[in-house]
Design goal:
Blueprint: H1 2-31, H2 34-47, H3 72-83, H4 88-94
């Protein structure tokens, strides 16, 4: 009888940790939509020099440019990408350091 009472907290902790790991693994699938991925891709392309203010680059060959939203927000995001060194220029600058 003593072994059962001593192992109960460990079993409870194990079940709770397994549940948290399961939820943590499925959280990105629940929160990430395709819209954010599209906006980030367009902003990354703008940060790397593709497109212009009114002609936003889009990765679909059947669509000439992205015209679903006003471009100011995407330009702010692309500026943030350049400031935070996500743009292609910073990667090219630091590439010799990793060879």
């Amino acid at each position: 009888m003593g072994n059962r009472q001593e192992s109960t907290p460990y079993l409870l902790i194990s079940v709770v940790l397994a549940g948290l790991l399961y939820l943590a693994g499925s959280l990105p699938l629940l929160t990430m939509s395709l819209d954010g991925v599209i906006y980030a891709g367009i902003a990354r392309d703008l940060a790397s020099g593709l497109g212009s203010f009114w002609t936003l680059p889009y990765f679909d060959a059947q669509v000439a440019s992205f015209r679903d939203h006003p471009p100011l927000g995407l330009w702010f995001l692309s500026l943030w990408f350049e400031v935070s060194a996500i743009g292609y220029g910073w990667r090219d600058f630091t590439a010799p350091l990793w060879r």
